[in-house]
Amino acid sequence: EADIYQTPRYLVIGTGKKITLECSQTMGHDKMYWYQQDPGMELHLIHYSYGVNSTEKGDLSSESTVSRIRTEHFPLTLESARPSHTSQYLCASTGANTEAFFGQGTRLTVV
Amino acid sequence: KQEVTQIPAALSVPEGENLVLNCSFTDSAIYNLQWFRQDPGKGLTSLLLIQSSQREQTSGRLNASLDKSSGRSTLYIAASQPGDSATYLCAVSRYNNNDMRFGAGTRLTVKP
Q1: Which member of A45, A69, B9, B85 lies 3.0 to 4.6 Å from A58 by CB, making a disulfide possible if both were Cys?
Q2: What is the three-class DSSP state of B84?
Q3: pLDDT digits over A66-77, tens only?
Q4: How far is CA B14 from the centre of its chain?
């Protein structure tokens, strides 16, 4: 079983609020990723990190930001949530053998 | 840009049938290919990882094959069970997972 955790699992928040989605892994993986997935649709990469102090934007334009101060922690922040941010956010990590492990996801609803 | 296509988009079979899910990709210069399972509202569970130098991987009732030159992978599920009902996703990476690209998935329903 993968040791990668996301909190919260579900979040309903009002427009304009600042939110941080948490992702932590205990596998010592250097690479971590954030994906956005709308219901029934494919995953889109929004951010990734090669290791501590490394962050890159993915393919999908996103108004979110990320940080990687510790290997095990890769939080995603929305400074001002909007209804268009309503989606499922999935965090993943990969180790040396390149197998990817995913968290359970955070389902965000902005009202 | 790598594009990943999964066919069929949805599949419904009776319990006990053997079935094949297909994944195709446009750029054959891949580093690896991974099959995942996703249950409704949940994250992804890794099923099988095939490195570019490998032809297939097996785990229990699952067998995944990879033909890089033709840009295809198949996931074979033997003796399907209702618990296999889920969406199955394939993802390909070109450089060490930095650009993992996903298909839209095949939604599988196995009827008792």
Answers
A1: A45
A2: helix
A3: 999 999 999 999
A4: 20
Residue A54 CA from chain centroid, whole number: 15
Element (H, E) at A95: none
Q: Which residues pair with A48 in a beta bridge?
A: A33, A56
> CA A47, CA A73: separation in Å to the nearest integer?
14
Q: Do A95 and A27 touch, CB atoms closer than 8 A?
A: yes
Cα–Cα distance, A102 to A110 (Å, whole number): 23
Distance from CA of B99 to the nearest CA of A (A): 8
Record: contact B43-A103, CB cut-off 8 A: yes
Say whether B41 and A48 touch across the interface (CB within 8 A): no
